[in-house]
Design goal:
With 187 residues, the protein is mainly α. It has 2 domains: 110 residues; 58 residues. 66% of the residues lie in helices and 3% in strands. Helix 1 packs antiparallel against helix 2, helix 1 packs antiparallel against helix 6 and helix 2 runs antiparallel to helix 3. About 5% of the residues have low confidence.
């Protein structure tokens, strides 16, 4: 994808991270959690609208992503404000996610030439993502059962996921073009 098309990539990732951190603040019952969540959802929706508007060649999958992001952000805002009638938005999020996954799915994370690159740093980041997701799931389950270390586990998981979302800011994108180590070719 050209550099111009990726201009809102970092701000969108920061917005999603703000949503995650706002949810963490809400779990910890800290002040201004609701405002942080609302800001993150609103910012994500607005930025994605701009990203969609700047796209020249719009395909069906682009409209599916637009419906997915907008219904997710509007549902997040309405749920945060404790407004009812969000079921239709949740159904819309689910249907658009399934449609996106069937149409694009994991191919979204591949290069343009359909090669999976398994560099050491990427394997470490992916492992961290799995650990973070498992920490969130485990922390949520333990929190339901009122166990002692549930909240620190949730904090750890959300922190890891937030770092994963922002990983391109932290790591350099200078991957050697001639390094064909551990590549898989997809048909």
């Amino acid at each position: 994808m050209p550099k111009k098309d990726n201009i809102l990539k970092v701000p969108l990732r920061v917005s999603i991270t703000i949503v995650l951190l706002g949810m963490l603040l809400n779990i910890l019952e800290w002040p201004y959690a609701t405002e942080v969540i609302l800001f993150g959802f609103a910012n994500t929706g607005i930025l994605y609208l701009f990203r969609f508007g700047n796209k020249k060649d719009k395909k069906f999958i682009d409209f599916v992503k637009l419906v997915l992001v907008l219904s997710w952000t509007i549902n997040g805002v309405l749920t945060t404000l404790d407004l009812s009638y969000t079921l239709i938005l949740q159904i819309l999020v689910g249907l658009s996610f399934v449609t996106w996954f069937v149409m694009e799915g994991t191919a979204y994370f591949l290069d343009e030439d359909r090669r999976v690159k398994n560099h050491k740093i990427q394997v470490i980041w992916n492992f961290a993502m799995v650990v973070g997701a498992l920490a969130i799931i485990t922390g949520s389950l333990l929190n339901v059962m009122n166990w002692k270390f549930a909240i620190p586990l949730l904090v750890f998981g959300v922190t890891i996921i937030a770092a994963y979302i922002l990983k391109d800011i932290f790591t350099s994108n200078k991957i050697e073009n001639n390094d064909r180590n551990n590549e898989e070719f997809l048909l």
